[in-house]
Amino acid sequence: MTSSFLRKFRILFSSIVLICFLFAFADFRAVIPEKYINYLLYLQFVPSVLKYIDLLTVAAGGFMIVLLLTLLTGRTYCSFICPLGIGQDLFSRIGGKVKKKFRRFGFKKPHTVIRYAVLVLTLGTAIFWGLYLVTLLDPYSIFGRFMTFLGEPVILLINNMLTWLLGKFDVYTLHHVDIRAFNPATYAVPVAFFLLVGVLSFIKGRLYCNMICPVGTLLGLISKVSIFRVKFIESKCTRCGRCSLRCKSSCIDFLNYNIDVSRCVNCFNCIDVCPEKALSYGFIG
After folding, report:
1. Which residues pair with 228 in a beta bridge?
2. Separation of alpha carbons 40 and 30, rounded Å
3. In this predicted model, what pLDDT tens digit does every residue of 265-283 receive, in sequence order?
4. Cβ neighbours of residue 208 under 8 Å, at least 6 residues apart?
């Protein structure tokens, strides 16, 4: 498919997913039924793996669907389902609005040694020492820490301000909620990762996904044999380079008609921007 519909669909779908997660974390009164929260968590890779190990039931095997989806379509998970990945796209877009050069990514060689070393180290520590490094680097855990330690206090503060304001008019729909005391030690890791992931995505696009994230690296390995991929139609390509400049994963080597599918997250920006329609997404024979 060469239509820009793919990019529009990705933006719409990922926006709905992100909004659902934001509502879930903003629900400090537990209004949303737990089963709906479980639906959201079902396809989150690391939480699903850990739940499957704990329960040993296929009903907890959402990660299997993610693996199958990756085998079929490539790293669709990273752009459509992962809330941290979707958030990085948002930061990257803001960076492009602030300074245009942040949108001109261009092809970069992969950080092969770093990304596979982090993956091996993460798996090794999980087997022999425990899950601390897994949960530290897991994209969903990072997003969860963002919302719990940085997002929730802001939401509670807004709630308390509205409670006070409405109380002046004898409206008591909302109720004051105590905000826990600030402890610098507990905020160190969330703030550090917020700065790391936020700055990298603001300036370099999907660099965290393709250099540090163990889930992204693992899915990238599987995507090398995916059935559907973004591909060049060489007879149409004029090598203008627009696709490479819009690729937030910096994985398009347009001079050699090559796309590093292990880093491609199926954002479809390249298909949308190509004036010659020389890029398409489809079956690889």
Report:
1. 283
2. 15
3. 999 999 999 999 999 999 9
4. 88, 196, 197, 200, 201
Q: Which of 214, 196, 200, 193 is nearest to 249 (CA)?
A: 200
Q: What share of the chain is helix, strand, coil (3-state, %, to 5)?
A: 65, 5, 30
Q: For residue 277, what pLDDT is reported? A: 92
Taking residues 134-160, what's their average pLDDT? 90
Q: Are 222 and 71 in contact (CB under 8 A)?
A: yes
**Buried residues in 124-156 as b, exposed as e (16+ CB within 10 A):** eebeeeeeebbbebbbbbbbbbbbebebbeebb
- Count of C-beta atoms within a 10 Å radius of residue 275: 10
- Between CA 55 and CA 70 the distance in angstroms is 24
pLDDT tens-digit profile of 80-133?
Answer: 999 999 999 988 888 777 766 545 688 999 999 999 999 999 999 998 888 899
User: Which residues have C-beta within 8 Å of that of residue 254, sequence separation ≥ 6?
Assistant: 107, 232, 237, 239, 240, 241, 243, 244
Contacts for 10-14: CB closer than 8 Å, 24+ residues apart? 10/79, 10/80, 10/266, 10/267, 10/268, 13/80, 14/79, 14/80, 14/81, 14/86, 14/89
3-state SS, one letter per residue, for 136-182: HHCHHHHHHHHHHHHHHHHHHHHHHHHHHHHHCCCCCCCCCCCCCCC
Rg (CA), the chain: 21
Question: pLDDT tens digits, residue range 30-86?
Answer: 888 888 888 899 999 999 999 998 887 777 789 999 999 999 999 999 999 999 999
Concatenating the DSSP letter of every residue in 218-229 gives HHHHHHTT-SEE
Looking at residue 179, its pLDDT comes to 77
Tokens of 178: 């105590």
